Amino acid sequence: MVEANRLDALRSAHVEDVERRSVRHSIRVEDYLEVLHELELVEGKAKPARIAEMLAISRPSVTKMLKKLDEDGLVVYVRYQGARLTDKGRNNAISLRERHGLIVRFLRILGVDEKTAHADTEGVEHHLAESTLSALREFVEKAESDPNWWSSRLK
Fold first, then answer.
1. Residue 116 lies in a domain
2. CATH code at position 111
C-alpha cells in the first residue's frame, strides 16, 4: 500500500509541475533570464560569449536561445552586440533573483555553507510552488528577525 501511495504522490507531483510550467517559463529560459540580469547588473551588458561561459554551454546554443527569447519578447537581441532584457524579461529575472535569494537565505539559516546553498538552490528553485515560497518567506523572515527563535529549536 505504501508503494502505491508513493507512486500516486510521484505522479501527482509531476502533473502539478507540468501545470506550473505551463504558466512559468522553462527551467532553461529561467536560467538565461537570471544570467542575463546578473550580467547586466555587473557588466552593463550580456554578450553571448559571457552567457555561454556562465551557463557552460556553446555560443551557438546561446545564439539560438537569444533569438527565441527575442521572439518571446523577453530580450532584445542584436547579432554581434548581445542582448538586453525587455521590461517583461527584467521583471521575470527580478522575480527569479528574489526566489533564488530566499532559498539561499533559508538554507543558510539551516546551517548550509554559502557555496553549497547556492548550488542546491539551482537544483530546486525552479520547482517550488508559490505557496511553498510564501511559507519559506514567512519562515526566513521570522528566523532572521528573531535568531533565538530558530536556534532554540536546534538544541
1. yes
2. 1.10.60.10
Per-position DSSP letters for the chain, written without gaps between them = -HHHHHHHHHHHHHHHHHHHHHHS--HHHHHHHHHHHHHHHHHSSB-HHHHHHHHT--HHHHHHHHHHHHHTTSEEEETTTEEEE-HHHHHHHHHHHHHHHHHHHHHHHTT--HHHHHHHHHHHTTT--HHHHHHHHHHHHHHHH-HHHHHTT--
Range of the domain at 123: 91-151
Tens of pLDDT, residue by residue over 42-93, are 998 899 999 999 999 999 999 999 999 999 999 999 988 889 999 999 999 9
Domain count, the chain: 1
Q: What is the pLDDT of residues 29-40, one digit of tens each?
A: 999 999 999 999
